[in-house]
């Protein structure tokens, strides 16, 4: 059994480690972080991302095992009115650099710009990352994290956006009401889908800034990380 609750600042290192495990085979993060120490560097990357605004400009939900409090899964959300702190990002620059390397920082910035081109202009919640640790796959953790936040979002009548690079996961997102609205090009080796979930009790809206055309895996959502 597990319980879903918001993360505190003290939880971010453990949350980052879970995301690093979940995304170690992800094709998009592989364009940013590679090598034999990939998982360690991914943990640094996710911790920097979480510490540079996720808790202040969004929500970080954790699924904790009831027996011992171990974090089984993590979902990182950005609110419709999110404002990213430049100061927080500057403070995390050493961690970003250790994770990505000096050559990796420009690649991360290009990835961020590519993803931003496909973000809808309408205010929305954004599912940035969601992942489940090795010992909890297939136990419904990822689905529970997703549905828990979607219920709260539906109560406010707000749409949701995400990206997914995994077809199996996209099928699961469709069951939760998402639909593909664009194919994201320009990322080496992968073409993620931009996915949109209409606000509860509203007419469909699919205004995006690019041409129209995310519990299966560890990384339940594509979780395309943008470090700034």
UniProtKB/TrEMBL annotation:
GO MF terms held by the record: acyltransferase activity, transferring groups other than amino-acyl groups
Stretches assigned to the N-acetyltransferase domain: 121-178
Alphabetical UniProt keywords: Transferase
InterPro entries in alphabetical order: Acyl_CoA_acyltransferase, GNAT_dom, Trichothecene_AcTrans
Keyword Transferase found: yes
Family annotation (Pfam families): Acetyltransf_1
Record region (Disordered): 205-228
UniProt KW Transferase keyword: yes
Protein name: Acetyltransferase (GNAT) family protein
């Amino acid at each position: 059994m597990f319980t879903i609750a918001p993360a505190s600042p003290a939880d971010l290192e453990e949350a980052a480690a879970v995301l690093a495990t979940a995304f170690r085979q992800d094709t998009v993060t592989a364009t940013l972080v590679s090598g034999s120490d990939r998982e360690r560097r991914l943990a640094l990357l996710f911790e920097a991302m979480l510490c540079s605004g996720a808790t202040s400009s969004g929500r970080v939900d954790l699924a904790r095992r009831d027996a011992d409090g171990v974090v089984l899964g993590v979902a990182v959300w950005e609110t419709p009115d999110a404002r990213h702190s430049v100061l927080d990002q500057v403070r995390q620059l050493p961690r970003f650099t250790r994770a990505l390397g000096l050559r990796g920082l420009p690649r991360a910035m290009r990835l961020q710009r590519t993803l931003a081109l496909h973000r809808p202009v309408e205010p929305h919640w954004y599912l940035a990352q969601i992942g489940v640790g090795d010992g909890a796959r297939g136990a419904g953790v990822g689905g529970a994290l997703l549905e828990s936040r979607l219920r709260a979002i539906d109560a406010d009548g707000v749409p949701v956006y995400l990206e997914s690079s995994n077809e199996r996961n996209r099928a699961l997102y469709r069951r939760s009401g998402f639909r593909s609205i664009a194919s994201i090009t320009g990322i080496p080796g992968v073409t993620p889908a931009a996915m949109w979930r209409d606000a509860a009790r509203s007419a469909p809206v699919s205004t995006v800034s690019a041409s129209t055309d995310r519990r299966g895996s560890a990384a339940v959502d594509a979780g395309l990380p943008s470090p700034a």
